[in-house]
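B., you asked whether I could sanity-check this one before it goes into the benchmark set. Here's the sequence:
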Amino acid sequence: MTSDQNDDGSLPHDLSAKLVAIAASADMVAFEALFREFSPRIRAYLLKMTRDTQAAEDLMQETMLAIWRKAGQFDPSRGHASAWIYTIARNIWIDAWRRQRRPAFDPDDPALVADPEPDAPKRMEDKESSAALHAALKNLPQEQVELIKLSFFDEASHSTIATRLGLPIGTVKSRIRLAFGRLRTALEDFK
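And here's what the prediction gave me:
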């Protein structure tokens, strides 16, 4: 038996014709014949893949439905109709396997739960901390305030700040360190 022959030795000359007929005119007779011929083979193939009779049956039904829908995509010049059909079955099995492996959505997952709103004392503390920081920044020389804003609010790198201000990078680093020392001292009084 060659790859061009059916199990009974006959040529599948009409398999491609059946797919073309299904695509051209939604020919139910051709589809029924194709279903009778291929559904047991596809079921057996999928049973080997899934080792689950019910899953194989469901995937076979899904495969046959896909064949009905995609019959217009079959191109006899690209290969045998049976290879096209088994490729659809294999792809459907792969999709089903991937769906099984995907974790279920858990709405109670801590990563998906929003942080609770801070209570009144915490909001008040945050507001006081913010006011203290702004007051401390007002007491710094303008050059140091600019360096802190560029570094931490604009998130510019030290080398970018050095280029932008025309200063050596070492000077930028030491001035930022000096500004932080002054801020730390001013904020310690806040505590």
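One thing to flag: Confidence is low (pLDDT under 50) at residues 1-6. Otherwise nothing jumped out at me.
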